[in-house]
Amino acid sequence: MKKFCLSHHNKLNNRFDHKLSSLQKKKLISWLFLLPSLLGVMLFFVAPFIVVIYYSLINNPIQKEFVGFQNYVNVWNNAAFKQAGSNTFIFSLMAVPLAVLLSLFLAAVMESRIPFKSYFRTFFLSPLMVPTASVVLIWQVMFHQNGIVNNFLNVFGQDKIDWLKSDKAYIVIVALFLWKNLGYNMILFMSALASIPKDLLEVAALENANKLQVFWIVKVRYMSSTILFVAIMSLISSFKVFREVYLMTGDYPYQTLYMLQHFMNNTFASLDYQKLSAAAIIMFIVVTVLVYAMYAVENWFGRDLEG
User: What family does the database annotate (predicted)?
Assistant: First the structure.
């Protein structure tokens, strides 16, 4: 691709040497280099998104009659969609703040002088290297009715809990989500902590700031953009949580574990493209609004740093 662009660069130089100004030639060459990426984005992201919008506005792929927002109304009033949306929202509300706060805490601990730091770091990164099916198998053994967790609770006189078929199923999935994502988030926060200018920390020390003030007023404020990025990635991951729940409980899990991705998967299996497309657009709008709200909070929180 580089050779292709360079050859066209030389041809354009020869052809338009006397017709285009230097600035125009630079712009043309820039667009030439950007063209492959733009084509890829248009072909694999923009075009499918337009197709999804189109399917959400017609009655079916054969008659293709325009029905306006009727598919959106049908999806919005669908009981399964409401159940899945409510469960996903509750799950995100629990999992995302925990993923951000715990990984930030772990990064701060890893930054301090503690023994066996490299071993702890490897331990928290290990979920990234383990196949999901293996993780799910371990989780099933741990949270089975006769599993390790219930046997441990029996020591303290607690009755057995059917973790995956009760209201406590959220605990299992949130714990699995955190176990999988804390290591990656922790590395991002450790990188952000290492990039904080030393002179800021020295000034804080000269001003007799204690450790809590240095962490909250200097470090957290300076890391606001990284916190935003981790929060957004965790939010998107929480909306896509499906594979682990599906492997543990199948297509139709206990009602508190029925997530939006279950609804999408089951709708896709029934070939109801209109409902699937409308649900995808609604999900996209909700995630976009939440991400925009996060950006607004980050802009307000870190406005003095950017100025």
Answer: Belongs to the binding-protein-dependent transport system permease family.
Tokens of 277: 């497309």
CATH of domain 69-303: 1.10.3720.10
**Whole-angstrom Cα Rg for the chain:** 25
Q: Which amino acid is at 66?
A: F
- E-strand stretches of the chain: none
CA atoms within 13 A on the CB side of 174: 22
- Which sequence spans correspond to the domains of the chain? 69-303
Residue 66: beta bridge partners?
58
Residues with Cβ within 8 Å of residue 190, at least 6 apart in sequence: 107, 110, 111
* pTM of the predicted model as reported, rounded to 2 decimal places: 0.75
pLDDT in tens, 159-212: 888 887 777 888 888 888 888 888 888 889 988 888 888 888 888 888 888 888
- Specify which residues 58 forms β-bridges with: 66
- How far is Cα 307 from Cα 287, in angstroms, rounded to an integer? 28
pLDDT tens-digit series, residues 214-242: 888 888 888 888 888 899 888 888 887 77
Residue 68 · residue 57 · CB < 8 Å: yes
Structure tokens given for 165: 């078929």
